[in-house]
Amino acid sequence: MAASNVVVVMDFDKTILDCDSDNWVVDKLGATELFNELLPTMPLNSLMDRMMKELHIQGTKIEDIVAVLKRTPIHPRIIQAIKSAHALGCDLKIVSDANVFFIDTILKHHGLKECFSEINTNPSFVDEEGRLRIFPYHDFTKHPHGCSHPCPPNMCKVQTLLCYAPLLHDTYTFSLIAVKQARIS
């Protein structure tokens, strides 16, 4: 099979990264206690938007968040593997419960952003006050995705992955390989 017929869909947290980006940012910005206190009261996606609000109120600037994201641990072999797969013509995609701002910032920092043809994740943006806003991929308050898979209410990765299947059946071989917390020695 030619590499140009290979689609690689991967998660971001604990797959490309060696950690969970949400926890990394919260921990490094000193908000772990508040995060842990609020975690049982709301979905993670809503919690991260709330944490960005609390950090903003405390004086955290978007530049502070960017600096923390640039220190997120990623194994050098992962960087090389992504660059190599892209150079061979593989179509690389991300399906992640992180958010656009975190993923784009980290990928750009490592020179990987252009390697990915598509990133499916929670939308986010910096508002006019300089606060990072994070929203759900699926608006679970209006239209819950209602699947039977053990996924968070804001994003069903299985549904997102299955959207690729009809596009691939004639040209590509479609194999689903789940990799979680993989380590490269």
TrEMBL record:
Identify the keywords attached in UniProt to this record, alphabetized. Hydrolase, Magnesium, Metal-binding
For activity, the cofactor(s) needed are: Mg(2+)
Per the record, the domain of life is: Eukaryota
* InterPro entries according to UniProt: HAD-like_sf (IPR036412), HAD_hydro_PyrdxlP_Pase-like (IPR006384), HAD_sf (IPR023214), Pase_PHOSPHO-typ (IPR016965)
Q: What is this protein called?
A: Inorganic pyrophosphatase 2-like
